[in-house]
């Protein structure tokens, strides 16, 4: 049998087959006995270890049952009952020394101590390496034992392991193997800052590597740390080493190498093989020219100073992005510069069982000609031998699919001359050298790759279908190769046939395969690793699946937190973990987006793993967040606007968004625009029709500021959602909004048709006076824009019949009267409107009325009074944060100054109005302002000396 305590609890038979030990209590009992092999362990000790202070009355009988179960679990047919002896005072477990890893470790430790006393550093190196090879992690990490039982045992072993490490590096330094161990010692110093032996060994390794300044800095760090933590100076030995490094003491030089390398741990370099293991490069390699040039250019510089850090060129990227293909291509182009061999090793970092560094080192040593029986045990010993064999040689080592930096670090040569290429789905940032993150191919490179596989003529025959295929593949080289290969193998298919199959809803991943290669398999490997995250199923794995339900646009942490119903700090950690795993992209700080094929995988996994109810609730939470945010923005962008009703919205208290002012609300809408507009379609598609039209309605105040296409698309979908929900009021709201969107782009004839449909919804239904008044007033504005002011006047008057106190309609009526030359009547209506506005404290409508008053007074050729009206409007708009209204009033104020013969003041107002219009997206008025400014500046008189208007 074999028992392992130096890591997770292991029980294996002689052939290495695991022998599961049933219940947690049985595992605890066996572990307690293994911690004291061949020793009588009292009943009380065992009971306390298994039950703590809550020992049940049936403990004694239960112990007998557990012992019987362990005997059955360990039964190998040879009679194992004698392994556990039960005595009146306790239990004894009989274990041979070579069966228990702790006993083996202690044996190597004793022999290493004796070899050290004899100064047999070769033996010390081999024995400490064998001892360290037994360690698999924290002892008994998966056995439930009280800390009073487990703690002293683990602390004793950890201390022994540190002692072994000290002796191991001491042997390396005595044998002149200082190259490459500085990084390992630096990690130990960071983990054990008060262990002075590691500090001294790090200083000496740095000094012998020609890095005296770093060695002195290491001492200074040690001195400050020890003083800070203990209030004393370092031990005299460390102080003396510091002085000798300062004096460049010749006695600190590298000791003479032994005449022959130890027979037990390797072979001489002269007999080592020259491996040539690179996979074949693909004949039609296309794209990635810039990345290839960077790697090859750096690899060409092989003459580096003695002791220089080995450059690690690493390429990271998501599955299917061509990392290995690029690295193999680069390796073949530069292999002539590495005549001592090229090694390729697949580390399996994205599999559920990545290759351990110890195993990888064994394969590397075998590649270099080391016989199997000469490969030492343990990472430290193997890494040291590998560095020794590679030192002085020019080798190219390609490590494919690395899991993390810890897997790679022991595999690096210790001296300059060789080069290491690494591919990984994770970003390995702790190594020097070139680092390239591979994303999607640009469109022109993707087109070239597809053409090289399918044929130029076949692709050129259907450009639109080709564009659809390229979009479906998202610039992923693997997807393009598989799509192209399937098409090339099917002469009867056209590019249109392939495009149709790829764009058939939900089938894209099923279509992207050829032979044993599947895009889904390549992508899903990264997801499988998420399931091993300590957060478990509720962490990044769940986040990945549900975030796939997002629209295919960039999103922020707040939106993700709303969808996942989690706090933002946790969600941000998950998002960054997904970025590191190349399952998400981060196009800007705090913004995240899926690659189209990765999102397709996330959606498929969500459908396979999460219930329909869970998926629907996630979408509902996201769209509710969009609704709250859009409504809060409307409160700042158009304070007097009619607000969408929010009652009866599920989760109304989640995802609350608030803004301090106009600028903050507008900036949020700009940032989230694509998500908000896409949220309307997402909600409608999920059957959340009420949410869909309400989000569209709540976006009105923002979309009117130059987002006419989004206004039209969101309200068109909102109208379909309202009709699907059977909500007539919602239908009329959307029709009214569609009319407004057409008015905003100067199409009043189209707007009238939408308004008339809205009118037909309201007519004949009681309690709709307010709605009828608003629609009739809007129809009046259409006739105003069409120049039919008589018709406009009639509609405004009809609107006031339904809503006599509507200040907005009275403002419009005054505008119509002024256009008919009835300025006095217009001013009288404005006086009546102003009285209503003061009574209702409607400051926004009052500001609009004052701006219209300025327009009327200008038409009446009373520019001085017009200036005063515009100024009053500006005061209210600035107080209310209405930036758009302020820009419109500045436009009119500039006109009034121009009418009054003050061109300099007019230009100053128009320039400020233009800045506002451009910032807010009101392009129609911006064009007119630029025209006026150009005319004034082209005038021979010029604008004169400008003064800042009030």
UniProtKB/TrEMBL annotation:
Keyword line: DNA-binding, Repeat, TPR repeat, Transcription, Transcription regulation, Two-component regulatory system
Pfam families: BTAD (PF03704), NB-ARC (PF00931), TPR_12 (PF13424), Trans_reg_C (PF00486)
Domain OmpR/PhoB-type residue range list: 1-95
PROSITE patterns attached to this UniProt entry: OMPR_PHOB (PS51755), TPR (PS50005)
Record feature DNA-binding region, as residue ranges: 1-95
InterPro entries: AfsR-DnrI-RedD_regulator, Apaf_helical, BTAD, NB-ARC, OmpR/PhoB-type_DNA-bd, P-loop_NTPase, Sig_transdc_resp-reg_C-effctor, TPR-like_helical_dom_sf
Gene3D superfamilies: Helical domain of apoptotic protease-activating factors, P-loop containing nucleotide triphosphate hydrolases, Tetratricopeptide repeat domain, Winged helix-like DNA-binding domain superfamily/Winged helix DNA-binding domain
TPR repeats: from-to residues: 732-765, 773-806
Family per record: Belongs to the AfsR/DnrI/RedD regulatory family.
Protein name: Tetratricopeptide repeat protein
Organism: Streptomyces tanashiensis
């Amino acid at each position: 049998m074999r028992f392992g305590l130096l890591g997770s609890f292991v029980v294996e038979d002689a052939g290495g087959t695991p022998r599961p030990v049933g219940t947690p209590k049985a595992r605890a009992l066996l572990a307690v006995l293994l911690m004291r092999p061949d020793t009588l362990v009292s009943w009380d000790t065992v009971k306390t270890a298994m039950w703590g202070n809550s020992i049940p009355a049936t403990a004694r009988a239960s112990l007998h049952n557990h012992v019987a179960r362990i005997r059955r679990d360990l039964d190998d047919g040879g009679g194992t009952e004698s392994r556990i002896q039960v005595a009146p005072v306790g239990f004894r477990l009989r274990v041979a020394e070579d069966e228990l890893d702790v006993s083996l470790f202690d044996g190597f430790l004793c022999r290493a101590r004796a070899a050290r006393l004899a100064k047999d550093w070769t033996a010390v190196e081999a024995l400490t390496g064998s001892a360290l090879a037994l360690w698999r992690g924290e002892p008994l990490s998966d056995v439930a034992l009280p800390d009073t039982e487990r703690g002293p045992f683990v602390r004793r072993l950890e201390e022994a392991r540190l002692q072994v490490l000290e002796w191991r590096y001491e042997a390396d330094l005595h044998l002149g193997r200082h190259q490459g161990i500085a990084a390992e010692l630096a990690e130990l110093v960071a983990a054990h800052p008060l262990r002075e032996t590691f500090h001294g060994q790090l200083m000496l390794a740095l000094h012998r590597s020609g890095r005296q300044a770093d060695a002195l800095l290491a001492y200074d760090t040690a001195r400050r740390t020890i003083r800070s933590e203990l209030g004393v100076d370092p031990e005299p030995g460390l102080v003396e080493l510091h002085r000798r490094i300062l004096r460049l003491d010749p006695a600190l030089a590298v000791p003479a190498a032994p005449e022959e390398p130890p027979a037990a741990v390797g072979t001489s370099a002269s007999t080592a093989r020259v491996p040539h293991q690179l996979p074949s490069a693909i004949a039609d390699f296309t794209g990635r020219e810039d990345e290839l040039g960077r790697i090859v250019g750096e690899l060409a510089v092989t003459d580096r100073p003695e002791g220089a850090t080995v450059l690690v060129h690493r390429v990271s990227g998501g599955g299917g992005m061509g990392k290995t293909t690029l690295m193999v291509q680069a390796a073949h182009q530069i292999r002539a510069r590495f005549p001592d061999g090229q090694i390729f090793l697949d580390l399996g970092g994205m599999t559920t069982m990545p290759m351990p560094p110890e195993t990888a080192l064994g394969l590397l040593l075998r590649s270099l000609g080391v016989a199997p029986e000469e490969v030492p045990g343990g990472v430290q010993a193997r890494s040291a031998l590998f560095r020794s064999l590679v030192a002085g040689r020019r080798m190219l080592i390609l490590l494919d699919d690395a899991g993390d930096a810890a897997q790679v670090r022991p595999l690096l040569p210790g001296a300059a001359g060789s080069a290491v290429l690494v591919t990984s789905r994770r970003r390995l940032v702790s190594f020097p050298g070139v680092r390239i993150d591979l994303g999607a191919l640009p469109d022109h490179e993707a087109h070239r790759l597809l053409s090289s596989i399918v044929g130029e003529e076949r692709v050129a025959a259907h450009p639109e279908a080709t564009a659809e295929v390229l979009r479906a593949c998202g610039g992923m080289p693997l997807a393009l190769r598989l799509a192209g290969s399937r098409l090339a193998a099917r002469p009867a298919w056209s590019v249109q046939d392939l495009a149709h199959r790829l764009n058939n809803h939900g089938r894209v991943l099923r279509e992207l395969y050829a032979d044993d290669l599947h895009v889904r398999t390549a992508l899903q490997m990264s997801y499988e690793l998420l399931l091993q995250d300590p957060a478990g199923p509720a962490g990044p794995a769940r986040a990945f699946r549900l975030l796939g339900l997002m629209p295919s646009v960039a999103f922020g942490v707040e939106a993700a937190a709303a969808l996942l119903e989690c706090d933002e700090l946790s969600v941000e950690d998950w998002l960054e973990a997904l970025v590191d795993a190349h399952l998400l992209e981060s196009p800007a700080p705090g913004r995240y987006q899926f690659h189209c094929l990765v999102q397709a995988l996330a959606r498929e996994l969500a459908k396979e793993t999460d219930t329909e109810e869970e998926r629907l609730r996630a979408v509902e939470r996201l769209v509710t967040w969009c609704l709250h945010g859009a409504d809060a923005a409307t409160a700042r962008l158009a304070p007097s606007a009619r607000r969408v009703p929010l009652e009866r919205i599920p989760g109304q208290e989640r995802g609350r968004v608030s803004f301090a002012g106009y600028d903050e609300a507008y900036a949020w809408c700009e940032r989230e625009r694509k998500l908000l507009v896409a949220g309307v379609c997402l909600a409608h598609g999920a059957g959340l029709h009420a949410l869909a039209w309400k989000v569209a309605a709540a976006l009105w105040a923002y979309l009117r500021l130059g987002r006419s296409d989004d206004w039209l698309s969101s309200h068109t979908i909102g109208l379909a959602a309202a009709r699907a929900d059977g909500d007539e009021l919602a239908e009329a709201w959307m029709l009214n909004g569609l009319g407004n969107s057409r008015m905003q782009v100067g199409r009043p004839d189209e707007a009238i048709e939408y308004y008339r449909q809205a009118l037909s919804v309201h007519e004949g239904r009681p309690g709709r006076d307010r709605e009828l008044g608003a629609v009739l007033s809007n129809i009046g504005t259409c006739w105003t824009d069409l120049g039919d002011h008589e018709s406009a006047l009639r509609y405004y008057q009809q609107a006031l019949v339904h809503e006599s106190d509507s200040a907005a309609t009275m403002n419009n009526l005054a505008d119509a009267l002024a256009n008919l030359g009835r300025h006095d009547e217009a001013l009288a209506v404005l006086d009546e409107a102003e009285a209503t506005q003061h009574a209702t404290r409607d400051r926004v409508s009052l500001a609009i009325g004052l701006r219209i008053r300025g327009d009327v007074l200008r038409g009446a050729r009373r520019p001085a009074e017009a200036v005063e009206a515009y100024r009053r409007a500006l005061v209210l708009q600035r107080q209310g944060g209405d930036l758009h209204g302020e820009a419109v009033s500045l436009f009119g104020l500039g006109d009034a100054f121009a009418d009054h013969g003050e061109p300099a003041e007019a230009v100053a107002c128009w320039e400020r109005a233009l800045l506002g219009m451009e910032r807010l997206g009101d392009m129609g008025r911006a064009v007119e302002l630029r025209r006026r400014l150009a005319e004034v500046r082209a005038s021979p008189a010029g604008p004169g000396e400008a003064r800042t208007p009030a």
